[in-house]
Specification:
Shape: globular
Number of strands: 27
Strand content: 25-35%
Structural class: alpha/beta
Radius of gyration: 23 Å
Length: about 500
């Protein structure tokens, strides 16, 4: 298990690296994260939903993703509520306090939920034993793959939540996992965070922590030699590696924290693509391929001036379509998008952004919250109604006469049978991964820049990046020592 001193320390990327390393070394690894909180999700081949990070890690391991790799997914809908997805199916919406509140004596991690969507596999209003569910998922996965590359969540030192922990040390105890603690030196305070994370563990849990990896190091590595020895002395745990910060390896990221580093502005000599920065933005990895195109300057913004000046405007997916649509009207972005469209600028909507581009969005049953109905931007001739049922599937579609791939994850039904709806200067679709396909990108850029066609497919590009990541980690982590830990040598 790769556990962390906090969120965004690099656990997901390190786990992906070891999925590829173990595969390269002849093993048959699989990723596992018992509980994930993220808006970036992915559709499995059998039409169920998991966190994007585990789908990426499965890709690095060279295997199809499965809900057993991430049996419990929390998708925030507001500051206080999340949709709970168990074994790939949405169960209901839950208030954060109710989800994390102390359990009655004698009960395990069993939570009652307000049902949403089709009946779940088992349980009901009386609740679900989430601990049993995630442990069963791990056991099924461990029976098929070896080794299991586990990932913790946030910090392992949230002692106020320890009795309700499903994903960190309690899961490590169930799996009898060797735990490697990942600390982020780039944010500062790495000595205190690593030492404190270990010191706050119970004696039983502390025994599981077999090593430390320092991540995101910048500068001359020799300057940390003394720090490495000091960490080992005060923690009594070996430092297995110090991984330098990298900029030339492209791996899909899951946490919205990464968006803070992506915000840029208009650039001359490029096709400027403005992704409208929504409060509940989801699946922003939809734009990674377009962002890497050398002809494109892609940036995230809710600045009305930049939106109007961009060549292409993208409305991304969202976990709260009506709430974000209301915010677009309040902050002036809706008007800026309409003015830009009237001037001939291309507007593209993905999933929730597609719904916003229609005539109306209705939520008569309050699936998303208290807003029952709003007019859309009026750019596409569709009407959308929010429904309890959730569409989750991988899809193949035709664009410009070529077969393309993507996936759908959305609530709500629009009154059109078209997977992709195009009108004058507008494209709307429910398909995530739409912009990962070369025919789509070339269509968007054909009148705006010289065509540059890459012979490398997206699959080949990703495979190359996983290999580069594995090489980077091998160079800076003692892989032999990790194998000795795993074999209790």
């Amino acid at each position: 298990m790769f556990a962390g001193t906090g969120s965004d320390v690099g656990k997901s990327i390190v786990a992906a690296a070891f999925c590829r390393i173990f595969r390269q070394d002849g093993y048959h690894p699989a990723p596992f994260k018992a509980q994930n909180m993220a808006l970036n999700s992915y559709a499995t081949p059998d039409g169920l939903e998991i966190g994007r990070a585990q789908a990426v890690q499965a890709e690095a391991a060279g295997i199809p993703c499965h809900t057993d790799m991430n049996p419990l997914l929390l998708k925030p809908q507001s500051d206080h509520t999340s949709q709970v997805v168990l074994n790939g199916r949405p169960l209901g919406n839950k208030d954060a306090y109710d989800y994390w509140r102390p359990l009655p004596k004698g009960r395990r991690a069993c939570r009652s939920l307000e049902p949403v969507g089709p009946p779940p596999l088992r349980g009901g209003r009386e609740g679900f034993d989430f601990r049993a569910e995630v442990c069963s998922a791990f056991d099924r996965l461990a029976a098929r793959y070896n080794p299991i590359v586990m990932e913790g969540a946030g910090s392992i030192a949230e002692i106020n939540l320890k009795d309700r922990d499903l994903v960190n040390m309690s899961m490590a105890q169930h799996a009898k996992a060797d735990v490697i603690l990942v600390g982020d030196i780039d944010r500062g305070g790495v000595f205190a965070s690593v030492y404190g994370s270990i010191a706050l563990q119970s004696p039983e849990d502390r025994k599981l922590i077999k090593g430390i990896i320092i991540n995101k190091f910048r500068g001359d590595m020799r300057l940390f030699d003394e720090g490495r020895r000091m960490l080992e002395d005060i923690c009594g745990v070996p430092v297995l590696g110090v991984i330098p910060y990298y900029k030339d390896i492209y791996i899909d990221e899951e946490d919205s924290v990464a968006l803070e580093q992506k915000r840029r502005q208009l650039a001359e000599g490029k096709v400027n693509v403005a992704v409208v920065l929504l409060r509940h933005i989801s699946n922003y990895t939809d734009f990674d391929t377009l962002e890497r195109d050398p002809r494109v300057n892609l940036f995230y913004t809710n600045n009305t001036s930049d939106i109007q000046q961009a060549d292409i405007i993208i409305l991304p997916g969202t976990k709260a379509t009506l709430d974000d649509l209301m915010e677009l009207r309040r902050n002036g972005c809706a008007q800026a998008i309409l003015r830009a469209h009237r001037k001939g600028k291309m507007v593209v909507g993905i999933c929730g952004g597609y719904q916003m581009m229609g005539q109306t969005v209705e939520d008569p049953d309050g699936i998303e919250g208290s807003i029952m109905s709003l007019p859309g931007l009026g750019l596409l001739p569709i009407h959308t109604t929010m429904t309890p049922e959730k569409t989750t599937r991988q899809v193949t579609f035709m664009f410009e006469g070529q077969a393309c791939q993507g996936y759908e994850i959305h609530q709500g039904i629009s009154d059109t049978a078209e997977a992709i709806l195009q009108t004058d200067h507008c494209i709307g679709t429910y398909i995530h991964g739409f912009l990962d396909n070369t025919p789509v990108i070339e269509h968007l850029l054909k009148d705006k820049a010289v065509s540059i066609h890459s012979e490398q497919s997206l699959a080949d590009f990703k495979d190359e990046q996983y290999n580069k990541l594995a090489d980077h980690v091998r160079k800076h982590v003692d892989i032999d020592k990790i194998y000795k830990i795993l074999t209790n040598d």
